[in-house]
Design brief:
heterotrimer, A: alpha+beta, 11-stranded mixed β-sheet, 4-stranded antiparallel β-sheet, 14 helices, C: 9 helices
């Protein structure tokens, strides 16, 4: 195509326009950020940590990162029994515990040594009401703290509590920085095996492993598909949990990755209201329990990555129970129970089932809705954004809902969830469950100072709860850890924490 | 000319903006039940509810609320986000560049595709080229962007791996969203260019140009296109509106951190003050863009100029 | 001719037929079979299953029902309300007309379905709110068109004659004005249907429309995008259905407009 020369002048304007747009576009493209190359180990997260100050952090991700940055007096073993971390302890008297700090303990990342003064300063800060720490409630039994010497510290309690050591699990902060109101939430300084490097925005947190100066980056990638793709592309080296089971199956087949699984303790359940005419009937709750087919859901929807649950605490917890009553999948029995309760095909039971808008929860709810419809229960499914949903269940505005308990370690959870005095806002007894027997067992179990008696009482309590069914238990989700083939050494923890990163290393393939 | 033509149009636009402000203000009152309860979800104490009610001025009579709202807008105070507690104007400024970037690149793609396509179809009217081009345009208009986006992701990111799946990082991340957003506009523009070019090419002055012995290309481009492009400029202004509202869905599909995805996120979080502010911002931009193209068209069209002088 | 009218008509009639017959067909769109989760298409089950083991074909048909129901309801209401108001305003003229034009301008200041998204978002999810939101946004186009048409037709001789005889305004509007303007309105309505189908799907895609377990092409696309990596059939099927129906409507609308244009042109000559 040969244009005569005078065409060019007519094109000039168009060309100018296109060039102008083009350069503008190019400029905009280049100003978008790009990924810098790195030899850090990149850990993909669904949610970014929100607060690196252990006195205030409550969400699981922040908690897990803080375990890397700070050390605590006490930790837990696989049966969730308290074991020494920074300190060993002895119970000098029923209300007096003495902790001896490990002589080989690490110093803080700013070089100052960790002493009993720091422990005292950390806990006293939390105990002060005006500091509004969310952990204050769990430490309410502390009356006063006395420092004996650099490595010995006494806790005096207001009442005897055998389980007290399980509660002093907060990361220790340096006292001199607490005094100067150092912003730990964004610039953490602890004594843990990892220290803080940078946190430019909520998509990237950089830590360094002190042992070998290996850098770690925690990258937030909300969308599970994108996270999986980044893993495949090598932009992220490892992820743990928060992936839909289908994606896990897909990733398992890829030769570039390897998958580790481990039983977990995240407990999923259906909650019921004891103030609603229908759901307060035991027959109704039992019918629901028999109508749902948990095994099938676990097998097909979760890819086998869960264990059916009978109680809030898993059986391998030191206070866990065995041989609890099971509600096997039995639609016939469910229909019988409903008939006993006065419902029939012409007058079916209608229930409202509330859930958050999380896609997996909605999916699960739709499945349960269907399973319940098979025995004649008509379920109206309502999904809400988290704020509305949480508000509704706290206020008791529901018949049935589903949720999970994450990070349960100590059996005082029973008091928090099932005691009649724990109705919100005083606790998490959202269903307004009131049982004299449960209250009695909880009070006795909480107050006894004999370990074996505690175990027996908690077992009895869980047996009673399995009969009363304030919750229909669903399952404990497994933990799934997926990493690129050259990443080795990660052990999955019972509660899904990131401690395994201490031993992660890259091998050459 | 300014007083005769520009001023009345600018005043009309101002009036329209006032109307938009009133309607956006009314949005909050369309919430079923008590908007404060809905927004806080009762996760707060009664004291917090009262505080929000006071802050939003909901305890006052409606006309006072409206005045307060307008006063706030005049100071560029768009309120505070319920979700993050940050001033909304800050949020807007943060997310605006992403949307502008997406809009401009989409526009660029639309023009780059539509202009040659429209010219081709007009010049080769009735042939396979014409049918092919217009068929392509028809498809472009019929594919919803919330499906085209995922399809492009499927092919371009998952199967071919050429582009990132979503988000705004790296130079390649704008390609798929911009193609998604620009396609519908390209389709409409190409049809428009074709029809106006065809119309113009039948006019007298074209016949004059041809009879003068000028080659077909000069006739088409120098004489035809220039005149055909004028109504297209107006259409561009109108289509920019489709671009702005289309951005809401496209940004959501690609997790593009612009104002469009902010609207959807805020709706899901019941952060209605942000929804109000974002809708207001988008609509006012639309009005201003239309005013601008209207004025530009009026100024550029020599017929108008000659008439008025 | 076949391409422009025959095939599109066939496509639309097929889906419309399925939509109408829906409740009478042996469908199981909500029947969850967990062992079928994300199983792709085969000879028995053409389009496979979704993430809950529900057959995609059945859900597509139910989705068609949703789309057509919403589309016709919204277009019918918008058309009637919009053209009535537009005709009335053009007929009355004066300040009423001026005010009406301003109101139209204000509604048109909200680009595309932005206002519908905001309305549906604020009013809450659910298909009735979608219909309301789309009507609020949709009536304006018909009003503006009706008004413009009536303004141009108002001065015709037979209308003047009717006024001179002393006919009631309603009668004038019904018998003399509306028949003349109906052609462009019908064309607008046909494109309007396509717009509403996409609008409802878009709102459902954003989570503002149908609620689970109800099916809509838009919500099916959204659910499908979550499993694109492992089961692309879930997102491809509803999208293709949507695209072809809208394409068919647009093609028919184009043909309709050309046909009416030709008719009016030949009438003029």
């Amino acid at each position: 195509m040969n244009f005569p020369s005078h065409i060019h002048t007519n094109f000039r304007f168009t060309i100018w326009l296109v060039t102008a747009f083009g350069t503008l576009g190019l400029f905009l493209l280049l100003t978008a950020c790009t990924e810098p190359p790195t030899d850090a180990f990149r850990f993909g997260l669904a949610n970014a940590p929100t607060n690196l100050d252990p006195r205030f952090a409550t969400d699981a991700t922040s908690d897990r990162v803080n375990r890397l940055l700070y050390e605590r007096l006490v930790d837990f073993n696989d049966a969730f029994e308290p074991i020494p971390a920074l300190a060993v302890w002895e119970q000098v008297a029923p209300t007096h515990f003495r902790f001896y700090l490990n002589p080989n303990r690490a110093s803080f990342h700013d070089g100052t040594p960790l002493t009993a003064q720091d422990v005292k300063a950390t806990y006293e800060f939390i105990l002060k009401a005006e500091n509004a720490s969310p952990h204050r409630g769990s430490l309410a039994m502390i009356d006063h703290i006395i420092v004996q010497d650099e490595a010995t510290i006494d806790f005096h309690l207001t009442r005897p509590d055998l389980l007290f050591p399980s509660f002093v699990v907060i990361g220790i902060l340096p006292a001199h920085l607490i005094q100067t109101n150092h912003p730990f939430h964004s610039r953490p300084i602890g004594s843990g095996p990892f220290s803080f490097v940078a946190w430019p925005d909520d998509t990237r947190l950089e830590l360094v492993r002190l042992e070998d100066q290996q850098r770690f980056e925690f990258i937030k990638v909300q969308d599970p598909t994108v996270r999986a793709l980044k893993l495949l592309a090598g932009e992220v080296d490892m992820v743990q949990n928060d992936l839909p089971p289908e994606l896990v199956t897909y990733l398992t087949k890829d030769p570039r990755l390897h998958v580790q699984r481990s039983p977990g303790t995240n407990f999923s359940y259906l909650g019921f209201s004891f103030e609603d005419a229908h759901t307060k009937q035991g027959l109704v709750r039992q019918a629901v329990a028999h109508a749902i087919d948990r095994e099938r859901i676990i097998q097909y929807v979760m890819g086998g990555a869960a264990r059916p649950a009978q109680s809030l605490l898993p059986p391998d917890h030191w206070a866990g129970a065995h041989n609890l009553r099971r509600y096997e999948h039995n639609p016939e029995k469910a229909r019988l129970l409903l008939a006993q309760a006065g419902f029939s095909p012409s007058a079916p039971l209608k229930l409202t089932y509330k859930t958050s808008s999380d896609p997996f929860r909605v999916r699960l709810a739709t499945i349960l809705q269907y399973q319940l419809s098979q025995v004649g229960i008509e379920v109206d499914l309502r999904s809400y954004d988290w704020g509305t949903f949480y508000g509704d269940i706290k206020a008791g505005r529901f018949q049935m809902y589903s949720l999970s308990w994450v990070g349960v370690k100590t059996p005082d959870i029973f008091h928090y969830v099932f005691h009649s005095e724990s109705i919100p806002p005083n606790g998490a007894n959202r269903g307004r469950f009131r049982s004299r027997q449960a209250d009695l067992l909880i009070d006795q179990a909480d107050s006894t100072q004999d370990t074996q008696e505690k175990k027996n009482l908690y077992q009895e309590l869980q047996a009673h709860l399995a009969d009363a069914l304030p919750y229909v238990p669903l399952w404990y989700e497994d933990h799934v850890f997926i990493a690129r083939q050259d990443i080795k050494g990660f052990t999955i923890a019972k509660d899904g924490n990131f401690d395994g990163l201490q031993h992660v290393h890259r091998i050459s393939l | 000319m300014f007083i005769r033509i520009f001023l009345p149009r600018m005043l009309t636009a101002l009036g329209v903006i006032f109307g938009v402000v009133c309607m956006v203000f009314l949005l909050l009152h369309l919430v079923p039940g008590d908007p404060v309860e809905v927004m806080l979800g009762e996760s707060a104490q009664p004291a917090d509810r009262e505080a929000l009610r006071q802050a939003l001025g909901l305890h006052q009579p409606v006309h006072i609320q409206l005045l307060a709202y307008i006063k706030g807008l005049a100071h560029f105070d768009l309120g505070t986000s319920l979700y993050s507690g940050r001033p909304i104007s800050e949020l807007m400024l943060e997310r605006l560049p992403a949307t502008i970037e997406l809009g401009l690149v989409s526009l660029l793609i639309a023009l780059v595709v539509a202009i040659p396509l429209g010219i081709l179809a007009a010049v080769k009217k009735g042939t396979a080229w014409d049918f092919g081009a217009m068929g392509f345009a028809l498809f472009g208009v019929s594919i919803p962007n919330f499906w085209m986006g995922p399809m492009l992701i499927l092919v371009g990111a998952l199967w071919l791996g050429w582009f990132p799946v979503s988000g705004r990082e790296g130079a390649g991340s704008i390609v798929l969203p911009a193609i998604t957003l620009g396609t519908a506009m390209a389709a409409i523009l190409s049809r428009m260019i074709r029809s106006t070019l065809l119309e113009v090419l039948t006019e007298d002055f074209i016949r004059t140009a041809r009879s003068k012995g000028l080659t077909e290309w000069v006739v088409t481009f120098r004489h035809g296109l220039r005149n055909a492009l004028l109504p297209v400029i107006t259409l561009l202004g109108l289509q920019l509106g489709a671009l702005l509202s289309g951005a809401v869905i496209t940004e959501t599909v690609f997790s593009w951190p612009g104002i469009g995805s902010l609207v959807v996120e805020s709706i899901h979080r019941r952060d209605y003050p942000v929804v109000q502010a974002a809708v207001l911002l988008i609509s006012c931009s639309y009005v201003m863009i239309n005013l601008f193209t209207d004025l530009v068209y009026t100024w550029v069209d020599p017929r108008v100029r000659i008439q008025k002088s | 001719m076949i391409f422009r009218v025959g095939i599109p008509l066939a496509v639309i009639l097929l889906w419309a037929g399925l939509a109408i017959l829906g409740p009478f067909l042996p469908l199981s769109p909500n029947s969850i079979d967990l062992s079928n989760i994300l199983v792709p298409g085969s000879v028995q089950e053409w389009l496979g299953f979704d993430d809950l083991g529900r057959p995609v074909v059945d859900r597509l048909i139910v989705g068609a029902r949703t789309s057509f129901l919403v589309a016709f309801t919204v277009v019918a209401i918008s058309l009637v309300v919009g053209s009535s108001l537009g005709t009335l305003s053009a007929y009355l003229g004066g300040w009423t007309d001026l005010a009406f034009v301003r109101v139209i301008d204000i509604f048109l200041a909200f680009p595309g379905i932005l206002l519908a998204i905001a309305l549906a978002g604020v009013m809450g999810p659910g298909i009735d709110n979608v219909v309301i939101a789309l009507c609020v946004v949709g009536w304006v186009g018909y009003a503006r068109l009706a008004r413009a048409q009536v303004l141009s037709v108002k001065e015709r001789e037979h209308v003047h004659a009717a006024v001179a005889i002393g006919a009631q305004p309603i009668r004038i509007m019904m018998r003399h004005l509306i028949p003349l303007i109906s052609a462009p309105l019908i064309v607008e309505a046909s494109f309007g249907i396509a717009g509403v189908v996409i609008g409802e799907a878009g709102l459902s895609f954003l989570g503002l429309g149908v609620q689970p377990p109800a099916a809509s092409w838009g919500s099916m696309i959204r659910d499908g995008t979550r499993y694109m990596l492992v089961a692309p059939h879930m997102v491809i099927a509803p999208g293709l259905a949507l695209m072809f129906v809208v394409l068919a409507i647009n093609l028919l609308g184009d043909s309709l407009r050309d046909w009416l244009d030709v008719k009016s042109q030949t009438r003029k000559e």
